Amino acid sequence: EAGVAQSPRYKIIEKRQSVAFWCNPISGHATLYWYQQILGQGPKLLIQFQNNGVVDDSQLPKDRFSAERLKGVDSTLKIQPAKLEDSAVYLCASSLNQGGYEQYFGPGTRLTVT
Amino acid sequence: GNSVTQMEGPVTLSEEAFLTINCTYTATGYPSLFWYVQYPGEGLQLLLKATKADDKGSNKGFEATYRKETTSFHLEKGSVQVSDSAVYFCALRDLYNNNDMRFGAGTRLTVKP
What is the mean pLDDT of residues B91-107? Predict the structure, then answer.
């Protein structure tokens, strides 16, 4: 079974530029999560989708971050404009459904904002 | 709100030593508790979990017991190996609050031969 795929793996941009990350969850997984992991900290949930609907985006900085999962499969996370403090690893995870199902994590995208 | 606090690292042990990584949590409901592991260059992997009080999760020689009275979920292993070197994250999930998932800051473990 293929795991969660993310691209790119690494990205370096200057502040005020835009960037987008892509995630392809495990086939058949209805729930998709985006996390931000700042160096030395644990992952922080940014947004959770159930199929193509948003379940929780309470920790997403909506003035600069946006995410979509239009067809209920792949998802993109965008930052526009980026700030220095956005430097982090962005993790995508998926689970079969909401509730007590295990979350499977992708390898992450390491973003450096200079 | 919900939160997880885990022992600060880094932790350095010799092979075959006993490991304990402390984890305590704060939650308004009845969360499920998890330990995740991140090996160098890899993504997060679920190591073990416990879904209710007094449950013991175990995997690969690691174990942790859900202690509601002390709000703790300490990770233990009797004899660590070099291959256990990784970053370990304690986490909780609140099924009654939009599946809210909270992670600790992580503890880096290095095991020397």
Answer: 87
